[in-house]
Each structure stands twice: as C-alpha cells, then as structure tokens.
Amino acid sequence: MNRVKILITRKLPEEFVNPLKDEYEIVMWNSEEQPASIDFLKKEVEDASALFSMLSDPINEELLSLGKKLKVVANLAVGYDNIDVKAANQKGITVCNTPDILSDTTADLTFSLLMATARRIVEAAEYVKQGKWESWSPFLLAGRDIHHKTIGIVGMGKIGEAIAKRATGFDMEILYYNRSRKLEAEERLGAHYRDFDSLIKDSDFVVCMTPFTPETKGLFGESEFRKMKRTAIFVNASRGAVVDEDALLAALEVGEIAGAGLDVFVKEPISGEHPLLKLPNVVALPHIGSASIETRSAMIELCFENIRRVIQGKQPKTEVKI
C-alpha cells in the first residue's frame, strides 16, 4: 500500500522530518537557501497529498490543478499572498498558515529595526570595524531619540499590538490605523486610533504591519512620504509590495524623511546593487521577522500538525479562510 506523500519545498533539518518517515513518504527539495524549481514542484505535486510551502513559493492555480491528490497546503508564514487560496478552496484543498506563534518574535525584530535605524546602530558598528573611529566628537554618528516620541502603527493585528506593547516601555505616544477599531487594545496599551493621513503626518516613526492585499498594494507612495515629517523614520516588516520603492528612494534622497528600516522588499531577495541599499540612512534585513530558532521550530511543527490533521480528516489548527 502506497504511503501518503508530503512534498516539502525547502530542505528542513532532519530532526523535524525523520519522525514522519515511518508514516509518510517525504519528498523534500535539496536546498536550504534556494527555492524549489517550478519543474520540481510540478512533477512532485502530481501525487502529493500535502504541500509544505514557503512564502517565496508561488502556489498558483496551475500548480494546484496538477495536484490531483492534494488535500492541504501548509504555508510557513502568517501571510499567504503567495497562494491562490480561492482556487485551492474551489478544489477542496485546505490552506493553513502559522499565525500567533510568531507575533512576539516579529515584534522584537521590528522594534529592533526601528531602534537600529533611529540610532544608526549598523552604520556605527561598521564605522568601528572599518577602523574609522579616531576620536570622539559631540555629534559623531548621532541618531534620534526613541523615548517619548510618537509611533504610528499601520495594521493593528496581533503583531501590531505586540509592537505597541514594546513602545509603552519607551513612553511613546501610540497611534494606530486599522480597518477596524481595537477598543480593548486602546484601553490596554493607551493607543489612539487615527485615520491614515493623520497618522503619517503626526508620527515620528511610521511602522507598516499591514497585510498585502489588492487594497494595500502601493499604500505608501510619493504623496504619503511627502506628508510625513522630515524627521520621520519609516519601518516596514510586513510585505514589500505595500511600498512604492521608487517613491521611498526619492523621499530618502531628497530628505523628505530621515530614514528607513526594511525587512521586506518588492522583489526578494533584493539585489545588492539596488539603490536603496546604497543609502546610509537605510537599514536593510533579509526578511527575518520571525527568524528565531524557537519560533521557526514552532512554525514548522505547526505546519506538520496541520498536515497530519487534514490527512486524518480532522480540522486543522490554523486554516486560512477568506
């Protein structure tokens, strides 16, 4: 009797995969760094019952149609804009993600990115390593204070709330914009709801945590950056496509805003020759929002738990519903 096949699109540590091999047939891409090829996915999905995917994998209608036995797609991320969820649902395929367990880890990284950009941490560290530190001066690599400033969070989901909680430790005024009011969060965190335009005008730090949807594509463009304070720092740890990168580059070059901390980009991985990476007031990270050992391990375990449940005819823990 043939075993149920699980297709994994990136090489995972054996400690997660080995316990499954007695029960399931595991087919796994052979690279930790490079995404699975389209040819590999098309060939192997044909007789797979489960697909364990990464946010960089395009799980489109064509691929889903090839998976004649496919019952579940488990995405190693909160976001799922890489998956055609509507097409999956029409074919009776369950889509799962990994919410909640990465909220604190992503909030830690996002606030670290805010701090690194404001206080010029990366620039200062390189200054020392390159042997440029020859004397002390009052404004040597002087950055901007974080405490008692105003943070504006665009997208007040669980991660946004976790970022706001961290901001309370810096005595920041917390503004937020969201599709719906979060009255409990307002009371618990002292946050204040603002419309989008008011938030970007009044914030010293504008933090984008909104999911990528057709409505949020290019949400931050030329006019939005022009409305911000010239001393404002923009932080994006959500999805790259919510930002017009050309408009961001222009705003930074002419001094419409003071700096940017970016964990995500429109095209990933971003080219080392991208002009944004040439600017000293940009801190760029390789999409590592949830990349702690503990959290990524928990995310992997949740994906496999969702796969097991669907294969066994049970309700998954975290199904995506649209």
From TrEMBL:
The reply on keyword Oxidoreductase is: yes
Tell me which domain of life the UniProt entry assigns to the organism this sequence originates from.
Bacteria
* PROSITE patterns per UniProt: D_2_HYDROXYACID_DH_1 (PS00065), D_2_HYDROXYACID_DH_3 (PS00671)
Q: Which UniProt keywords apply?
A: Oxidoreductase
For whether the record's keyword set contains Phosphoprotein, the answer is no
Q: Name one Pfam family in it.
A: 2-Hacid_dh_C
Please give the InterPro entries that the UniProt record associates with this protein. D-isomer_2-hydroxyacid_DH, D-isomer_2_OHA_DH_cat_dom, D-isomer_DH_CS, D-isomer_DH_CS1, D-isomer_DH_NAD-bd, NAD(P)-bd_dom_sf
- Sequence ranges assigned to domain D-isomer specific 2-hydroxyacid dehydrogenase catalytic in this UniProt record: 6-320
Q: Where is the D-isomer specific 2-hydroxyacid dehydrogenase NAD-binding domain?
A: 111-289
Residue ranges that the Swiss-Prot or TrEMBL entry lists as coiled coil: none
PANTHER family cross-referenced by the UniProt entry: 2-HYDROXYACID DEHYDROGENASE-RELATED (PTHR10996), GLYOXYLATE_HYDROXYPYRUVATE REDUCTASE B (PTHR10996:SF283)
What family is this? Belongs to the D-isomer specific 2-hydroxyacid dehydrogenase family.
Q: What is this protein called?
A: D-glycerate dehydrogenase
| Provenance organism | Bacillus carboniphilus
